[in-house]
Design goal:
- This protein has 328 residues and is of the alpha/beta class.
- The chain is 41% helix and 10% strand.
- The chain has two domains: 180 residues, 3-Layer(aba) Sandwich (Rossmann fold); 133 residues, no CATH class.
Length: 328
């Protein structure tokens, strides 16, 4: 069965998450995605926690798609906005509110009206902006800088942080009441080193996303090297390595071979039923990744490996894999 996020109601979602290579195979991560599906249609605020590069914004986008909201998804990096401009950027401003305010501006919160506002690195919000954001969540209204009348807004607020907010609350650096409001539903994304079951399939997805086809071979030594790395920058690091390896024409990626499949005599593809076709050298995770990438099509997997269908089925049987189960 495919390990890409597959939730009801959504060809659009399936396309978007495949494009981003969102893969969750281990049970805890799949349970987390089930929570995303369950809470998505509600108006509850969502706080997504996790290390840098674990896919927090991808999950936020998936929740927006599943929410059914017709408005836009608006993302803002709270750590990238100059502190003196946070209020103006988020809440908008009236003409003449300050030097340089030559026209009315709606701000990001009103731009997200009817949709989702995603606050990335929310821990970086300045104290004064935290107070104003609390009012937005409580009253569902915003007062532009230089304005006097509140303007009603209808939106869901989703936030993300790679920091532990509890110590910041204890030190008075983050408002306790705002933290309580933001953490209506809290999702903890695991680090890539905690979900090694996903490494093979995730690597295949990332390579296929950039080349249009899965890698030709993930052999045993390759998988060992891949699984032996801690990936401190998580999926972002893996994606960067894939991109660099492909750009440089490198045949390996952390030991994972991405070279073309070997051809038969005179460059011809091997006979898919040849008894003497070469036996593929790869482990269970690598074969499962290829079966998933090819949706259980044994002929396609055999072609990618430069071997026969019977060799693929023999190896699958040895590993206890049933190709037909990867077709959904």
């Amino acid at each position: 069965m495919s390990s890409v996020l597959t939730l009801p109601r959504t060809e659009k979602l399936a396309l978007s998450v495949r494009a981003k290579a969102l893969v969750f195979e281990d049970p805890k991560s799949r349970a987390l995605l089930a929570r995303v599906q369950q809470m998505a249609p509600s108006n509850a605020t969502v706080l997504i926690a996790g290390e840098t590069g674990t896919g927090k914004e991808i999950v936020a986008r998936a929740a927006h798609v599943l929410s059914g909201r017709r408005g836009p998804y608006v993302a803002v990096n709270c750590g990238a906005i100059t502190p003196t401009l946070v209020a103006s950027e988020l809440f908008g401003h009236r003409r003449g509110a300050f030097s340089g305010a030559t026209e009315d501006r709606a701000g990001l919160i009103r731009t997200a009206d009817g949709g989702t506002l995603f606050l990335d690195e929310v821990a970086e919000l300045a104290p004064e902006s935290q107070a104003a954001l609390l009012r937005v969540i409580q009253e569902r209204e915003v007062v532009p800088v230089g304005g006097t009348a509140p303007i009603k807004v209808d939106l869901r607020i989703t936030s993300a942080t790679c920091q532990d907010l509890a110590p910041r609350v204890a030190l008075g650096r983050f408002r306790r009441d705002l933290y309580a409001r933001l953490a209506g539903v809290t999702l903890e994304l695991p680090a890539l080193r905690q979900r090694r079951e996903d490494l093979g399939l995730l690597t295949v997805r990332l390579i296929a996303r950039r080349t249009g086809q899965p890698p030709a071979r993930l052999d045993r030594a390759a998988a060992r090297a891949l699984f032996g790395h801690d990936w401190p920058e998580n999926i972002r690091e893996l994606d960067q390595r894939v991109n660099a390896a492909l750009a440089l024409g490198d045949a390996t990626l952390a030991g994972v071979r991405i070279a073309p499949a070997p051809a038969g005599p005179s460059g011809a593809a091997p006979d898919p039923e040849a008894a003497d076709a070469p036996a593929p050298s790869l482990d269970r995770d690598a074969l499962a990744a290829l079966l998933s990438a090819h949706r259980g099509n044994v002929s396609h997997v055999a072609k990618a490996l430069g071997t026969s269908r019977s060799q693929v089925r023999r190896l699958a049987s040895r590993f206890g894999l049933v190709p037909e189960q990867f077709r959904s």
